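Please, does this match?
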Amino acid sequence: MPKKAYHHGDLRAALIDAGLTLLETRTADDLSLREVARAVGVSPTAVYRHFPDKSALMAALAADGLARLAVVQHAASDAAGGGVAGFGATGAAYVRFALANPALFRLIFANPISLPLHSGEKEDDAMAFLRANAALLAKGKGGDAQVIALQAWAIAHGLAMLMLDGQVPVDETLIDRVIDTDAIQG
C-alpha cells in the first residue's frame, strides 16, 4: 500500500502563522526552519517547498508583520477620527506595535524596507498610508510631504527602538507626548 502524501490546506500560510507565533517567545535569530516545521507538524523538508531557505521564511514573516502593522495603524487613525489627529495616532500605534511585538518588529526592519519617495516605486500598505497622511499634514500646515513622512517615521521608529533597547523607559504617556504632529516641520 503506497504511503499517503501529507496534505495541508495551505502549508505556506501555516508555516508563516507558526513562525509568527514562535516569534512571540524568541528572536528571529533563534528561530529555525526545523522548529517551524515541527510546530506545523510536517517534516523539515516540507518547508523547502515554500521557502528555499531561512531568509525566505524570514522575509515572508517580515512582510506579514508589516501588513499587521498597517492594520493597527489604520485602526488607530480611524479611532482618532483621521486627519492630523489620525496621523499622530498612527505614530503612537507604531511604537505600541513595536513594544507588543519586539521580535517581529526587529525582523521587519532587519529586512530591506524603503520609503518610496518617487512615483512608480512599489510601496506596501504601511508606507502608502504614511505617505498619504504626510501629504495631508503638508497640505494643512505647508511643507514637503516627503520630509514630513521621513520625520514622522524617524520619530516613531527612534522612540520604538529606544524603548525596546531599554534606553528610554516604556511609558504610555511619554509615547503620546513624543509622537506629536505639531513638532513636525516639513
Notes: The two ends are 70 Å apart (CA to CA).
